[in-house]
Amino acid sequence: MATFRILVTPGDGIGPEVMEEALKVLGRVQQRFGHEFVYDEETIGGAAIDRYGVALRPETIAKAKASDAVLFGAVGGPKWDDPRASVRPEDAILGMRKQLGLFANLRPVRVAPELIGESTLKPEVLQGVDMVVIRELTGGLYFGKPKRRWENAEGRQAVDTLRYSEREVARVCHVAFQLARQRRKKVTSVDKANVLRTGQLWREVATEVGKQYPDVELEHILVDACAMYLVRRPASFDVIVTENMFGDILTDEAAMLAGSMGMMPSASLGRRRKDGTGIGLYEPIHGSAPDIAGQGKANPLAMILSAAMMLRLSLGLDREAKAVEDAVDAVIREGLRTPDIAGPGAKVVDTRTMGSAVAERI
C-alpha cells in the first residue's frame, strides 16, 4: 500500500465546500486502489489574516515542502478587498508558488460534448476543443521590481515592472514542448513582441527551445490575436505557452469555452523527477466566489479534476487519475448539473450531491 502526504489548504469563500468534495472523492480512490493519503490542513488567505495577521505562515510553507502535493481551495473576498492593504489573501497563492519553486501553471481546457449547448459560442466552434494553456508563474508584472505607489505634485502614481530572464522563459517553454510531444505536437507561443522588449526576448528564446524539438510544430501569436482566436477557432490550439499576466487573462477567457470556470482545474509545477513526478500545487481556477459561499451552489468538479491532476502529476497514479476523470464524465453524461452549467430543464444538484455522485462512480 502506497502512502502519500498531502497538504490541504481550503482557504476562503467556496474553497472549503469544494475541497470537502475533492477529499470525498480521494477517499473513494483510497478504498478502491488501496492507497493511504495522509492529510495536513492549514489555514490560508483571508482566514489566515484574521487568525494570524498574515495570509501564509512559514509553518504552512514548511508543511508544504514536506508533502508530496498541495491541494489549494481559493482565497479572497470583500472583507479583505483593499488594494492598498499591506497584507492580502492573494499573498498565500503567490507566496506558495514562489517558495515551492513552482514556475509552470497548467490549465487544461476540454469541452464536454454534453456541455457544448451551455456555452455562449456556436456549437460548431467548440467541436474538438482540447488544449492546455501553460502560464509562466514566477516572472513578469506580478513579481518584477520596482513595484510601488506614491503621490507627487502631479497626483497619484504607480509602477509595476515587467521583467523576464532567458532562464525563466526557456524552462517553461521546455515544459510546453515536452507536453506537446504527448499530445498533438503543436505549441503556440503567445507574446507581445511588436511592442514589448520582454515579448521580443520571449519569442527569441521560444524559437531557440523549439529547435530542440524538431518533431513539434511551433507558431508565434501576439496576445491580442490569441484572444480573438480563442473564440473564433479554439480547436486549432494544442498547447499554448505564455507569460504570467497574459496567461492569467487568457485562461479565464478559455474557461468560457468549457461553459464555466467551475469546470476548470489547474496544476502549478516545478522541477520534475526522472519519473515525471514532483511537488505541485493543485487548485480550481474559479476563485473564492463569495457571493455563493455557503449556499450549496458551488461546482466542485474543477476541484475534483484538480485532485485528479495531482494523482497523475505528483503522485504518479495515472490509473487512479483516469478513474476520477471518467467518473466526472459519467455524471455529466447522466445529466447532473450544478447551477453554473445548468441549461433549461436540467437536473440541478447541490455541491455535496455532485461530489457524492462522482465518488460513487469510481
Could you characterize what this model shows?
With 362 residues, the chain is of the alpha/beta class. It starts with a strand and ends with a helix. The protein has 12 helices and 14 strands. Strand 6 and strand 7 (155-159) form a beta hairpin. The protein has 2 domains: 1-110 and 260-362, Isopropylmalate Dehydrogenase; 120-258, Isopropylmalate Dehydrogenase. The record marks 142, 192 as: Important for catalysis.
Q: Quick recap of the structure?
A:
This protein folds into 2 domains: 1-110 and 260-362, 3-Layer(aba) Sandwich (Isopropylmalate Dehydrogenase), CATH 3.40.718.10; 120-258, Isopropylmalate Dehydrogenase (3-Layer(aba) Sandwich), CATH 3.40.718.10. Helix content is 38%, strand content 21%. It contains 12 helices and 14 strands.
Name its key features:
12 helices, magnesium, Isopropylmalate_DH, Isopropylmalate Dehydrogenase, amino-acid biosynthesis, 14 strands, alpha/beta, IsoCit/isopropylmalate_DH_CS, globular, 362 residues, two-stranded antiparallel sheet
Percentage of residues in DSSP E strands: 15-25%
Query: Uncertain spans, ≥5 residues at pLDDT below 50?
Result: none
Helix coverage percent of residues? Answer: 25-40%
**Radius of gyration, Cα only, in angstroms?**
20 Å
Number of domains: 2
What series of H and E elements makes up the topology? Answer: EHEHHEHEHEEEHEHEHEHEEHHEEH
Q: What is the CATH domain class of the largest domain?
A: Alpha Beta
